[in-house]
Design brief:
Number of helices: 4
Shape: elongated
Largest sheet: none
Strand content: under 5%
CATH class: Mainly Alpha
Distance between the termini: 50 Å
Structural class: mainly alpha
CATH architecture: Up-down Bundle
Number of strands: 0
Helix content: 55-70%
């Protein structure tokens, strides 16, 4: 019977790599939500959900302090998601919500870009305090 040897053990991805992946996913979902605003409720809900899940995953990879700062944006996205398809999706309120999403996109890019939070990303295997 032949014997097989593992040439190399493959470890999991580092927290930095996972954070980068979810940051890119969040950016794509959030951008799509803004681009599709007012066009298709089903796609807007899907985009909002994808952005929300990516932000939540990013939050689990950050130190407690940075995770709490990200919580503000997660809560706001969750409230927008609950309003999608409702009566607030018409007129001035809809325009205000879209502007808020655009402002949050810029703020998250500025504050949570992976090069800016490099020191706040938990080391692989480390848990938030």
């Amino acid at each position: 019977m032949p014997v097989y040897y593992a040439v190399k053990e493959y470890g999991g991805k580092s927290n930095l790599e996972i954070y980068q992946k979810h940051y890119i996913f969040w950016q794509a979902w959030h951008g799509e939500l803004i681009d599709r605003w007012g066009k298709s409720t089903k796609r807007m809900v899907s985009s909002a959900d994808g952005a929300f899940r990516s932000l939540k995953r990013m939050q689990t990879l950050l130190s407690r302090e940075k995770a709490e700062a990200l919580n503000e944006y997660i809560d706001r996205l969750e409230s927008v998601e609950s309003l999608l398809g409702g009566p607030y999706m018409e007129g001035a309120q809809s325009i205000k919500l879209k502007r808020d999403l655009e402002r949050d996109l810029r703020a998250i890019k500025r504050q949570f870009y992976y090069k800016h939070v490099f020191d706040d990303i938990l080391k692989t295997g480390e848990k938030a305090a």
